[in-house]
Design goal:
Layout (H helix, E strand, L loop, with lengths): L1 E4 L2 E4 L4 E4 L5 H11 L12 H17 L2 E3 L2 E3 L3 H13 L8 E2 L5 E2 L4 H31 L17
Antiparallel strand pairs: 1-2, 2-3, 4-5, 6-7
Helix pairs in contact: 2-4, 3-4
């Protein structure tokens, strides 16, 4: 049911990567499963499909984790994307005169220009996430099987 890969637990049912965080609900379930006498599969590396599934999970998480614009972070879960898109399509800006960032601060003016800027930033950040996802899948396709377990999913280190 589980496999431990480095610092991460992978739930084999859906390929979800579970961080070793005692506050994480999925990690608590894993610990309870082990406490019940179960043993995770050996750390033998994942196959290419499992690594690609973890990459897809990363993409989904990143797409819902917000995007940067105007010196702030903005919500980008499904509802926030829909709300921003509909406001953009209406072409008049926010009817309340502001938009809220991820910290729930009101940011004015919330006019049509601001909404267009936020929408463009959301699309651009989504494209960057997609490009990184495709790059990771290309890198994984080129790796020897023995190196799949060590592949680091995410943004490349700054440098």
């Amino acid at each position: 049911m589980y496999r431990v890969i480095g610092e991460c637990v992978v739930r084999l049912l859906d390929g979800a990567s579970i961080p070793a965080d005692p506050d994480n609900y999925d990690y608590q379930n894993y610990l309870a499963w082990v406490a019940a006498g179960n043993t995770p599969l050996p750390a033998a590396g994942p196959d290419r499909d499992q690594v690609n599934a973890r990459i897809n999970t990363w993409r989904t998480q990143m797409e819902a984790a917000g995007f940067p614009a105007l010196g702030r972070w903005w919500d980008s879960d499904d509802m926030a994307r829909e709300r921003l898109t509909l406001t953009l399509l209406a072409g008049q800006g926010s009817p309340v005169g502001y938009w809220k960032d991820v910290e729930n601060h009101q940011v004015a003016p919330g006019d049509a220009a601001m909404i267009a800027t936020l929408y463009a930033a959301m699309v651009e950040y989504g494209a960057a996430i997609f490009a990184r996802t495709e790059q990771m899948k290309t890198e994984v396709a080129a790796l020897p099987d023995a190196q799949l377990a060590e592949y680091q999913i995410g943004w490349p280190p700054a440098g």
